[in-house]
Amino acid sequence: MTFNHNDYYHRLLLRQVPPGAGRALDVGCGTGRFAGRLAARGLEVDAVDPDAAVIEAARRDGVRFVQGDVTAMELPLGHYDYISCLASLHHVPFGTVSRLRRSLAPGGVLAVLGCYRESAPSDYLVSLAAIPVNAAARLALSHRPGPPVTAPVARAAMTLDEVRHEAADLLPGARIRRLLFWRYLLVYVRA
Questions:
Q1: Tens of pLDDT, residues 5-17
Q2: What angle, rounded to 10 degrees, do the helices at 96-103 and 160-170 form?
Q3: Which of 149, 159, 11 is nearest to 86 (CA)?
């Protein structure tokens, strides 16, 4: 598969990095491409993923890769200016965002490119619109080789409404918007 839905949103996620950011955490880093893009912007990047094969394949200069479970590992308090989760939050309990929030420095940003379970008519309409765009993108990029290792995939359990409800409690003031390609963007700024 040469068209990656998560990679498509890298530019959107990079726009969420706060000015002057110095340290970033990429949760569920997968192939490490996004962590590498953060490092290329001059950020000191920690990238964590539970899958050993993915971590080994992801290794690149400028990023500290750690194999680990973000729900169990010790995260420094108030340390990161930017925390990203690209299609990884649905692999862990949503409440994990509380740990991530505490690891943000004042003014730090948590940016989640999340997956949700379709449930509402509007979900299915957006999915229907995404199908031809997805097919065209895959066809256009079919000549490119795929990555040697891919990150594990899991189905999302929470609906977009459930994500909004949980985020209202755990991340007050977070902005959430539905995106094409079966994703949503959640942005939380720590006061």
A1: 788 899 999 999 9
A2: 50
A3: 11
